Amino acid sequence: MKLYMNRASPFARKVRIAVRELGLTGRVQEADTAVSPVAANETLGRDNPLVKIPTLVTDEGDTLYDSRVICEYCDGLNRKSRLFPAAGPQRIAALRRQALADGALDAAVLCRYELALRPEALRWPDWIAGQKAKVFGVLDLLEAETGRFGEEFNIGQIGAACVCGYLDFRFPDWNWRSGRPQLAAWFERISRRPSVAETTPP
Ligand code: BEZ
Predict the structure, then answer these.
(1) 81, pLDDT greater than 80
(2) If you take atom 1 of ligand 1, which residue's CA is the nearest one?
(3) Which pTM does this prediction carry?
(4) Going from the N-terminus, what domains does the chain have, and what CATH number goes with each?
(5) Which residues contact 162 (CB under 8 A, 6 or more apart)?
């Protein structure tokens, strides 16, 4: 299988962590892919008209996106599904936490694009503040929920780890750990997992 990915992308990181957790590294070829909302990538564009990473081309030649679909597909390849609980309250809880994390990542990536790509004169500080507030709202909720994570590391916790890691990578000045000791301690611990350590952004 071919995974279009980029070491900076937190959504690609979700998939890369999942692949490692599921023992699928030998079956997935990671293809480093440059993407930008303001530049074309013809190779990726042929496989995914959204020109977004992660994109997975399966051994059967099917092309899958986005990170949610790819992670669930990979989970299904493993005889014993591990990252997505079976139907029921635990599955809904994991999907809800994944949605929370993905929403925070969407907002953080939009801030990154705004600050790194948009010409300074065209930036809209209130819009950036609005996106940042979403990220911090999610972090506060995760802080309140960390005590219930236990040893679980399903798609919800993978998403949460990718949020913390992306903020460390792109927004260290946001000091996300301040006032969130439980989440910070959890992330410190989870960062030692090989799947998380190996996928730390450059
Ligand atoms: C980044 O460089 O922050 C980034 C790269 C790809 C996707 C999203 C974010």
Answers:
(1) no
(2) 8
(3) 0.97
(4) 2-77 (3.40.30.10), 88-193 (1.20.1050.10)
(5) 10, 11, 13, 14, 17, 101, 105
